[in-house]
Amino acid sequence: MKVIDMAFKEGQEFKVRVKPKDDCNSFALNIGHDPENIAMHFNPRFNCGGDANVIVCNSVSGGCWGDEQREGNFPFARGEECKFHINFNNEQFYIKLPDGSMMNFPNRLGDVKYKFFDVSGDARIIGIKIK
Question: Given this model, what pLDDT does residue 5 score?
C-alpha cells in the first residue's frame, strides 16, 4: 500500500494498526518523500535474511541506504493484530512499540514534513490515523 501527499508533520502522531500474516517473515513501513528518499524504514523481521525477531530501521537518501540500526525488543507476533505510534522532529523518530516500550531512530533527512507512506511485506493494514 502506498500513500502519496499525506502530510505527516512534526508534532503529529501517526498511529498504525497491522496484522502480520500467520506465516509472516517480515513487513516494512516507510515514511519519507518518495521511494528514493525515505527518512524511516521500519522493518520488523520474524525470520528474514538471516534475522529472527529483530526490528531493523534504516533510511534512504538519493537511492542509497544508510547504516542499519537494530532493536532487540520484538513485541510482534505472527497472526496477532498490533498497533504502534510514531512521532518525530527534525532530529529523531520516536516509536512506541506494541508493548508500550519506546525506540528512537535518527531523522537522517532532517525534515519536519513527509508526504510519502508505504507498507509492504506479509502484513495487512487494519487502520492508519494521523492526529
Answer: 60
Identify which of 4, 67, 58 has the alpha carbon closest to the alpha carbon of residue 28.
Answer: 58
pTM above 0.90, yes or no: yes
Whether 7 and 120 have beta carbons less than 8 Å apart is answered as no
Where in the chain are the domains?
2-130
Half-sphere exposure of residue 95: CA atoms within 13 angstroms, side-chain side: 26
Q: Are 95 and 102 in contact (CB under 8 A)?
A: yes
How far from the centroid of its chain's Cα atoms is residue 59's Cα? 10
pLDDT digits (tens, 9 = 90+) for 86-122: 999 999 999 999 999 999 999 999 999 999 988 899 9
Q: Confirm if 14 and 87 have CB atoms less than 8 A apart.
A: yes
Cβ neighbours for 79, distance < 8 A, ≥ 6 positions apart: 19, 20, 21, 22, 24
The one-character DSSP state at 76 is -
For the 2-130 domain, the top CATH level (class) is mainly beta
